[in-house]
Amino acid sequence: MLYVVIPVFNRLPYTRACLNSLRQQTRTDFRVVVVDDGSTDGTAEVLANEFPEVEVVTGDGNLYWTAGVNAGIRRALALGATRVLTMNNDVLALPDFIERMLAYADQHPTAVLGALELDAATGEPVYGGERLDWSTNTRHDLLKELTPGERHGLHPVTYLPGRGLLIPLAVIEAIGLFDEKRLPHYLADFDYTSVARRHGFPVFCNYDARLSTYPEESGQEQTRRQRSLRGYLQHLFGIRGGGNLRNFTHFSLKNCPRPYLPYFLLNGYARRLAGYFMH
């Protein structure tokens, strides 16, 4: 049984729209777990009244993304999940999303699968996975490298984001849950999928399964929208900071091949220190 795990903290309109998109799926043989981490905008009441079919896990407001997802996965496993699909609440699943994810999951039962992401405003693809050259810290954007005719089926990637990530039970049994201690928010998803790949599990972006996303609503974009010294420090050191130096160090030490580690770290630090002002 597939369980969809969605961590939420406020932003009720997104949560409602996301859950409604899951109600409209062409396949309905899945269940949903929402981890409500202390929302104060009426999320709990709406979940109880409008979405009684959803399993709810309640947090105290201090879980952040990683611990929230882990709490949802633990509940899903206790309920008998054989596959888990993590999602963020600010995505919309196209009607055949679950069907197309499960179709490939059946063909590749040990694979970790992500999805093609579309801009909710334009319908244009905005993310289709990356391949990372560790030796130069160079990211190869598959959307830029694949022709329109090649944008279908599965494509191997280095890592995947957690906003539409299908994880087989075999992966969880082999490598455990997300690293909530060292990576409480950002990079936990890239780390998890990198660790899975290093343990021999295939990691693919599924171009036939599509999610609509809101690129401008990401935490990194909001931090950079109004640049300031406070925002810069938040970017580098805050738990939600997209350039968090501590998180990047943990990710690198765990996943970068040792011969490339010194350059990868120095290059990554430089990019984070300067990148806040360059986007």
Structural summary, described in words:
The protein is an alpha/beta fold. It is 39% helix and 24% strand. The chain has eleven helices and twelve strands. The strands form three sheets. It has a five-stranded mixed beta sheet, with helices on both faces. Helix 1 links the parallel strand 1 and strand 2 (30-37). The longest helix is centred in the N-terminal third of the chain and has 15 residues, at 64-78.
Quick overview of this protein structure:
By secondary structure, this protein is an alpha/beta fold. The chain contains eleven helices and twelve strands.
Which percent range describes the beta-strand content? 15-25%
Read across the widest sheet, the strand sequence of neighbours is 3-2-1-4-11
In whole angstroms, the N-to-C terminal distance is 42 Å
Q: Unreliable segments (pLDDT under 50, ≥5 consecutive)?
A: none
Name of the top-level CATH class of the largest domain:
Alpha Beta
| Largest β sheet strand count, sense and barrel closure | 5 strands, mixed
Radius of gyration: 18 Å
Helix content, binned percent? 25-40%
How many individual domains? 2
Question: Any guess at the CATH architecture of the largest domain?
Answer: Alpha-Beta Complex
pLDDT averaged over residues: 93
- Please count the beta strands (DSSP E, at least 2 residues each): 12
Topology:
Layout (H helix, E strand, L loop, with lengths): L1 E7 L3 H12 L6 E8 L5 H8 L4 E5 L4 H15 L4 E5 L3 E3 L3 H11 L4 E8 L5 E3 L2 E4 L4 E4 H4 L8 E3 L7 E5 H7 L12 H11 L4 E11 L5 H7 L3 H9 L7 H11 L5 H15 L4
Parallel strand pairs: 1-2, 1-4, 2-3, 6-12
Antiparallel strand pairs: 4-11, 5-12, 6-7, 8-9, 10-12
Helix pairs in contact: 10-11
